[in-house]
Design brief:
about 425 residues, alpha/beta, nine-stranded mixed sheet, two-stranded antiparallel ribbon, Arc Repressor Mutant, subunit A, 3 domains, Rossmann fold, 13 strands
């Protein structure tokens, strides 16, 4: 049986339930002439007519019946024929007319006054993740995102600095939802050959999936989301880190599933006051290109539905060199963009904590240049020097460097264009400038 037939059967079943409800409720309306049986039959006919005229969008019809059931059966009222027909014809319009306005209206000054009464969000990881945010951290495999996430969690739980960021808040309990590593893998990562283990803060809790309690009839995503809600209420933990999203989404490449996950996480954020950091993978990408939001696996809708986002990249020249780039932020301007990425390297410290060590700041472009790129830049700078300091012509430079006059001109023009400066052209021993805009 296909999906449409399943929906069709569900609608029929609920229609039958509605008829039973009508008969058993004892609340059937009388038309004033004792014709209650006529009214019951009329409702029955109405339902049957609508079943027989089910539109091609069975899911829409299914939702319409569900909404109708909920609205009327909760109040123990029996709808009249015309009301049912009108509702099935355009349920969204009926619901919109009955629903209260989604807007509240106040002046800008009133908004600011109300905002003054709410606390300023604390920084959980510098300017990259604030309290009350759903934040995304992504990178390619083996770049160290899980290690950084645990480092962030431990810093918050212990109340200690993370990288170069000073921690100005008191230690807070953190729940790390680990769907990837086993206990033994965690032990290996935070010990010296299973000896001299790192001692974590007792405010850092690690949540794992209990395989024995998985309900095969409910999606793992729903069970994890419910578990987060339940655990937060039970122990009053407000900070969660989920490692990682691809492990809980049934098909992470489908935008619909990614959107649903982010919407549910935002609902939890708002209803329980949570701060959530979600780890995500990137599909195969060109490591020579700058990190972009589009690199995120699954869907750009993930980016649209999160409050902040940052990513980990790797230097082409030095395999140990990592950098952190800020890709989205709401409360402040971007501080760690392409011209000011955070430089760091991953190492195990003397206390056997695997952590990122701060190395300073730099330009992302410099980290993505290969040796060939460096050689090309040196050659371009030499061409510029020969033209602007020695007044050499393109053809003379070409002969000296073993390339054509046209190639010399192309390299020079590209260099000057990238640096937004005017060209200097030497002709018959005379220098003149050309605008390259």
């Amino acid at each position: 049986m296909n999906k449409d037939n399943d929906n069709f059967g569900n609608i029929k079943a609920r229609a039958a339930d509605k008829q039973d409800f009508i008969k058993d409720s004892g609340a059937i309306r009388d038309d004033g002439h004792g014709n209650t049986e006529l009214h019951e039959q009329s409702v029955h006919d109405c339902i049957q007519e609508d079943i027989e005229a089910i539109p091609s969008d069975h899911e829409a019809q299914d939702r319409a019946i569900s909404k109708f059931d909920l609205r009327h059966e909760q109040t123990n009222q029996i709808p009249i024929d015309s009301e049912f027909k009108e509702f099935v014809k355009d349920p969204e319009e009926v619901l919109k007319q009955e629903a209260p306005s989604v807007f509240t209206a106040k002046t800008m000054n009133e908004c600011i006054e109300d905002a003054k009464k709410t606390p300023i969000p604390n920084k959980l990881f510098g300017d990259l993740w604030f309290e009350g945010e759903v934040c995304l951290l992504f990178s390619d495999t083996d770049y160290g995102k899980s290690a950084l996430a645990v480092q962030i969690a431990e810093g918050i739980a212990a109340g200690t600095p993370i990288l170069h960021f000073e921690n100005k808040i008191k230690s807070k309990s953190v729940a790390y939802v680990d769907i990837e590593l086993s206990d033994k893998q965690v032990e290996a990562r935070y010990s010296d050959n299973f000896q001299d283990h790192y001692i974590f803060s007792n405010k850092l809790m690690r949540l794992q999936i209990d395989r024995d309690n998985i309900n095969e009839e409910i999606s793992l995503e729903d069970q994890i989301l419910h578990g987060i809600e339940q655990y937060s209420k039970e122990v009053d933990i407000k900070i969660f880190i989920i490692d990682n999203n691809t492990a809980i989404i049934s098909d992470p490449e489908k935008g619909r599933n990614a959107i649903r996950l982010m919407k549910e996480l935002n609902n939890l954020k708002k209803s329980l006051g949570l701060s959530i950091l979600v780890l995500a993978h990137t599909p195969k990408r060109d490591p020579r290109k700058p990190l972009r939001i589009d690199d995120l696996a699954g869907s750009k809708h993930l980016a649209n539905l999160c409050d902040s986002m940052f990513a980990i990249g790797k230097s082409i020249k030095d395999e140990s060199q990592r950098y952190i780039k800020q890709l989205k932020t709401k409360p402040i301007e971007t501080k760690y963009g392409s011209t000011n990425v955070i430089l760091c390297h991953l190492q195990k410290s003397s206390d056997n904590m695997l952590r990122f060590e701060f190395d300073g700041f730099g330009r992302e472009a410099n980290l993505l240049k290969s040796t060939d790129d460096d050689e090309k830049e040196v050659r371009a700078e030499k061409i510029v020097k020969l033209i602007e300091e020695k007044n050499m012509k393109y053809e003379d430079i070409g002969q000296e460097l073993g390339m054509s006059k046209g190639n010399v001109s192309k390299i020079y023009r590209k260099y000057k264009s990238n640096n937004s400066s005017p060209l200097v052209v030497v002709s018959n021993g005379n220098r003149k400038q050309e605008d390259i805009s």
